[in-house]
Amino acid sequence: MEIKRDSYLKQLIERKNNGMIKIVTGIRRCGKSYLLFNIFKRYLLESGVTPDHIIEIALDGIENEELRDPKMCFKYIKETIKDNENYYLLLDEVQFMPRFEEVMNSLLRIANIDVYVTGSNSKFLSSDIVTEFRGRGDEIRIYPLSFAEFFSVYEGDYEDAWQEYMIFGGLPQVAGFQSERQKSDYLKNIFANVYLKDVIERNKIQNAAEIGILVDVLASAIGAPTNPSKIAKTFASERQMRYTNKTISAHIDHLIDAFLISKASRYDIKGRKHIGANLKYYYTDLGLRNARLNFRQQEPTHIMENIVYNELLMRGYNVDVGIVEIFDQDKTGKRIRKQLEVDFVVNRGSERYYVQVAYDMTSEEKQNQEFRSLRNIPDSFKKIVIVNGSKKPWRNEEGFIIMGMKYFLLHVNSLEF
After folding, report:
1. Which of 26, 180, 40 is nearest to 115 (CA)?
2. What is the tens place of the pLDDT at every residue in 354-375?
3. What domains are defined for the chain?
4. pTM (global) more than 0.90
5. pLDDT tens sequence across 85-111
6. Other Cβ atoms closer than 10 A to 397
7. Mind spelling out the 3-state secondary structure of 204-231?
């Protein structure tokens, strides 16, 4: 079973021969190596590159153990280049090579080699890896399967696929498993023994129990505004543990660097400024999030919100959580300030969209709740409400676009409706 990753292949093709090192990053097990060594290599061959001009080195293989030595590897690559035609180096699991940054920078001085690298441990997955190559790195961020990618190989209808995706997420390996037990066991195991272990070892975290509980707290709170102070109070009151704001903040940064979670900043729409407090955190893969909670907390509204957030990132948008300040009255008639939330403020270049995510909008009360913040936005950018189900997009009398989750996920340009 091969899952097409056309959007990532397109990004690789667009960057071909641009004089920079293409750095394929993303959470472990999301398909980086397969993209490079199977999908991209096939493209090169089909476009006329001969096999002897594609240099493949998988440093995790025992057959390439001697090439983990940086000088040996560089010598091997140089000796493989026999003429002035373009060569393509596909270097996998580069973290197995000490001083790999020096090797990459040395390769930049060879005019006819185009370099692509991946890595799968927490050092390589650090989000600042591009800086290691002195500004000559070009990052391509890979995510777990989008719903459209998952659905393209799913043997069943949309509703079954949607339920499966909400529970088990989009890691490619999981999509190939047949039984629910196999999927859940795999996700639990790799969270503890791969992802969390990498973060702890790389950052030399002494108290592994603290960060273990932290990932549980963040998993429980997807879609809810939070901050290190609030989390510290939770630890103190519910678990009788002292976990300082500074340590919590550092540990959250480590989880973000490893691509396990993402943070969405709050943006004051009327004031046109970012607000530092009460960020929202979302899991890069919901299967991992659910596995961490032993598949107990399945709140469809928050899970939908997380899926929409990830989908927007995959499409290349910058995403914030919107705040609209209004004046309201309390029960006594006193005039008070109130903040309404817009789930996502979505930007890409000159494009902007305001997006609400609603699992259920069957009642008039629920509709007013979702529409109220949109009504108070003082500009004319497109306002969209994504609801659960298969509804095709339509525009209500206020000009708001309502679309079903199925349409949003399966049409890559759905926001442009």
Report:
1. 40
2. 999 998 888 787 888 889 999 9
3. 6-141 (3.40.50.300), 145-417 (no CATH)
4. yes
5. 999 999 998 888 988 888 988 998 999
6. 5
7. CCCCHHHHHHHHHHHHHCCCCCECHHHH
